[in-house]
Amino acid sequence: MKDYTIAVIDDEPAILFTIEKSLSEYQVDTFSDAKTGLEKVLATPYDIIIIDYKMPGISGIEFLKTIKSHNISYFGIMITAYAEKDLLENLINDNLINKVFEKPLAVNQIREIIHEAVAELNQKYKLQADMDRLVTENKMLKAGGKIIGLEGGLKEVSEQVKAIATYPINVLITGETGTGKEVIADLLHHLWAKEKQTPFIKINCAAIPEHLLEGELFGYKKGAFTGAERDKPGKIELAHKGTLLLDEIGEMRQDLQAKLLRVLQEKKVENLGSNTVTDVDFNLICTTNRDLIKACRKKIFRPDLYYRISTFHIPLPALRDRKKDIPELINYFNEKHCKRLHMKKKIVPEKMYSLFSRYGWPGNIRELEHLILRMVIMTGAAPELNIEQIPFQEESFSEQPLNSPDSEGSYEQALQVIAGKVIHSGIPLKQVTKDILHAILKAFDNNVKKASEKTTISKDIFYRAKDP
User: Do 235 and 372 belong together in one domain?
Assistant: First the structure.
């Protein structure tokens, strides 16, 4: 239940004391000066306002009319010793007040009316939440119509997105490579923007060389360093009044993490080579396939920055945990790429659905999409996708991918499959080793650095494996 706040404005201290004591379970602020109370209510709106009808300086009616002019919503209760029925009815009809206290005040009457107010507010906020939810769902359908699984394997993610759609806060999206982190980030920005043309600035912290990332993020002035031939605003500055997406933030070096933390704390950014600061206000989304908690323990990621960027954490499930969505994904990518290549939509053989559902998909949705595209191209003019063109042997399809933390139990099975290929196909051991290294690289989008860090295999070995 919401913790309701109550403001009481009356020039009689005895009345303020009586109301505050009788409502001890609520947060009650009392004001004997109407002007002071008005300033506070305008700065920090209250759920319930109890106010005297006649006060020196500002009357209760003037007070409430001022609040209404600022579009502040509240449950209003008027205290009066003057039972002017017609006037009070007008105030209720004009939505300035909801109830009336008549002096002298009775404690039981005060509590009864406040309980009535709370019940009414509960119903009001529930209806508002339901309406907001419907609006958000409609927007999600419009913005994310191509996101498969919002009612399936991504249902929990969908509920999280709906929860924060009207509350722009720092969001951390985590998940394995290819799980759709950027797609969810796009959806969040669309919902936050509320159909306004606000900037959505993206930067991949892993794709930009470390020595260039600082300038890209913070911008620079002409002459700040060799090669800075003109002023350039940074991505942070460009994201003002919009959304900033820091993709793969786990790859950011620590000195830049410290500078980013300062920006988030102070809402100001300073270009390289400049002594002036610029105010910035943006929504922040960060994504990573790293375990940032583990990175904090290893002292390669700042804990203070982690807690700053992860106000709301959305973990995305791997495709192997979304098996029910696979048939829909197959059909979607089949239709998408056939249309793009000006082909008729291909027929999907029934066996393909079950076969794909048994595979672990180390590259997740990205791997599935690329495979469907390859099959569409290889099928050519034929009406049906050819299951024989799948670049895996059927026995390679298992419940867990090679890079899954739960795949240790299938290690012996994998060895048997490899041994069988060597025995029956005469594949040289050197080729087997190279194929395994290629499979590992593929799981990390051919990123040698990530593959080396995850497996402890030296980068040189991976680079030699990549050479023809």
Answer: no
pLDDT of 336 > 60? The answer is: yes
Distances (CA, A) of 161 to 126, 139, 169, 197, 418: 19, 11, 11, 20, 43
Q: What is the pLDDT of residues 402-456, one digit of tens each?
A: 444 444 444 555 665 666 666 655 677 777 788 888 888 888 878 888 888 888 7
Give the tokens for residue 195.
Answer: 């159909």
- Residue 350: give its domain's CATH number: 1.10.8.60
Q: Sheet with 99-102: list strands edge to edge.
A: 27-31, 5-9, 48-52, 75-80, 99-102
Q: What are phi and psi of 288, to 5 degrees?
A: -165, 150
> Do 185 and 245 contact (CB within 8 A), yes or no?
yes
Residue 331 sits in which domain range?
Answer: 323-427
pLDDT at 151 over 90: no
Sign of the alpha-carbon dihedral angle for 213, 218, 222, 225: negative
3-class state of residue 314 by DSSP: strand
- How many structural domains comprise the chain? 3
CA distances in angstroms from 18 to 3, 33, 68, 110, 147, listed in the order given: 21, 17, 27, 9, 57
Distance CA(304)–CA(295), nearest Å, equals 12
Q: Report yes or no: 325 and 153 within 8 Å, Cβ to Cβ.
A: yes
State the Cα angle at 362 between 361 and 366, rounded to 5°: 75
pTM exceeds 0.70 for this model: no
DSSP element (H, E) containing 113: helix 107-143
Give 88's contacts (C-beta < 8 A, 6+ positions apart).
Answer: 78, 80, 97, 100
Question: Residue 88: which pLDDT band, with cuts at 50, 70 and 90?
Answer: low
State the Cα torsion 455-457-462-465 to the nearest 10°.
-110
For the record, the structure tokens of 215 come out as: 């300038």
What average pLDDT does the structure give for the chain?
Answer: 82
Does 207 reside within a domain?
Answer: yes
Question: If phi over 0 gives left and psi between -120 and 50 gives alpha, with beta otherwise, what is residue 380?
Answer: left
